[in-house]
Every structure is written in C-alpha cells, then in structure tokens.
Amino acid sequence: MTRPKASSPPHTVALIVNTAWVAWKFRARLMKHLRDAGWRVVLITDVRSDAALLEGLCDEIVDVSVAASRIDLLADLRTAQGYWSALRRLRPDAVLG
Predict the structure, then answer these.
(1) C-alpha closest to that of 53 among 31, 77, 25
(2) pLDDT tens digit string along 60-83?
(3) What is the pTM of this model?
(4) How far apart are CA 75 and CA 79, in angstroms?
(5) Beta-ladder partners of 40
(6) Cα dist. 1→7, 35, 92 in Å?
(7) If 0-12 CB within 10 Å is exposed, 13-18 middle and 19+ buried, where does residue 3 land?
(8) What is the SS3 string spanning 28-40?
(9) Pairing relation of β-strands 40-46 and 94-96?
C-alpha cells in the first residue's frame, strides 16, 4: 500500500461492515494498519451500542441502520440508500466491504 504524500490530504478508505462489533472483531487490525499507513479510515456500519469498541480505530463512523434478522425489502432499501448517501458524501478513494 502506498503512503499518501505529506502535502496532499490523506487518501480516504471506507469500510462497510454490518455491525460495529464485527468491525471491531474482524477489521480492527486492518483499520489500524491503514491509519498507520496514513489513510483516513471511515467506518460505515450499524453502530447501536458498540461504538465505544471502535474508539481510536477509525477517523469517522457513519451510522447506517441494518435490518437485524428478517427479510424486509423496505429496510434493505433504506440500508442501501444509507450506504449510497454516505459514499456519495465521503467520495472515498477505496471501498472495502
């Protein structure tokens, strides 16, 4: 992975994960590595009560609600729209899902 130049703003990577706990459990090392390499890390996830786990692992957290356990077309469309809105606002250089 290349390090962004010091004079330019840091590159942004968006990680899309269904819950904050999953991000902490399975993506914490990746987020730390990316931040150490000079990337701005934005986590797009359903935060709920697990936001404290993510302190210091990412630069920004975008909360997007995810339907928990059942198939719900409207909830899935709201989730997709939340992801789309976040990505449109952030304009990341890379997206990891």
Answers:
(1) 25
(2) 999 998 877 678 888 889 999 999
(3) 0.84
(4) 6
(5) 12
(6) 18, 12, 16
(7) exposed
(8) HHHHHHHHHCCCE
(9) unpaired
